[in-house]
Amino acid sequence: MAAKAGAKDRMDKKINDKTVTEKNMAEKTTIEGTTIERTTIERTTIEKTTTELKNEIRAATDIEDFLKKNRSSMVTGGLPEWLNTLLAQKRISKADVVRGSLLDRTYVYQIFSGDRTPSRDKLIALAFGLRLSDDETQKMLKLSCNRELYARDERDALILFALQQQWPILKANDLLFRHGFTVLGAPV
């Protein structure tokens, strides 16, 4: 018979201006009187915030030194790479995205390959197809150099609400239509 006991210690510390959380996990397993102990250390690194980076740029005298020091905090790749990463993380297919966004199949595939640069509304429709959270949608809009959804804008507030409620695009479009706004994913 096996018995397990586990212990976790958590420690936050600053290393090279990054917050690093270390969790020491000790696991003991006893099998027929023999105790086996295994210890693992799990590290999570939190990159610098945009504000921290802006402050460092303001104080920098050498941009090359700044870039070298902050390489891990820089955005690499573009929208297509990020979208393809999301597909893998969420384990959904491009066909699912097409169905969930109401966008043309060829157009969606061109966005994912980087052959087309979508408008803000097309990206928001894509967010519904990808089943993104409101935060993930904001990140996608930022990454594509589009204006983020703004809670003081009535149409954007409706879209944010639909994203937060995890509604499908058809239900979001019904809400937009009832309030007199242009719907998402439909040809203009």
Question: What is the second-level CATH architecture of the largest domain?
Answer: Orthogonal Bundle
Element order, helices and strands?
A: EEEHHHHHHHHH
Number of structural units classed as domains: 2
User: Can you tell me the CATH class of the largest domain?
Assistant: Mainly Alpha
Q: What class, by secondary structure content?
A: alpha+beta
How would you write the strand order of the largest sheet? 1-2-3
pLDDT averaged residue by residue: 81
Portion in strands: 15-25%
- Binned, the helix content reads 40-55%
The biggest beta sheet is recorded as: 3 strands, antiparallel
The N- to C-terminal Cα distance equals 67 Å
Give start-end ranges of low-pLDDT stretches.
Answer: 1-25, 39-46
Report the CATH topology name of the largest domain: 434 Repressor (Amino-terminal Domain)
Distinct helical segment count: 9
* Rough outline: globular
Number of strands: 3
Tell me the Rg in angstroms: 23 Å
Give structural notes.
The protein has 188 residues and is α+β, with helices and mostly antiparallel strands. The chain folds into 2 domains: 2-73, Immunoglobulin-like; 79-178, Orthogonal Bundle (434 Repressor (Amino-terminal Domain)). The chain is 47% helix and 22% strand. It is built from 9 helices and 3 strands. Strands 1-2-3 form a 3-stranded antiparallel beta sheet, with no helix packed on it. A hairpin with a 2-residue loop joins strand 2 (18-31) and strand 3. Helix 4 (94-101) packs across helix 6 (120-130), helix 6 packs antiparallel against helix 7 and helix 8 (154-164) runs antiparallel to helix 9 (169-178).
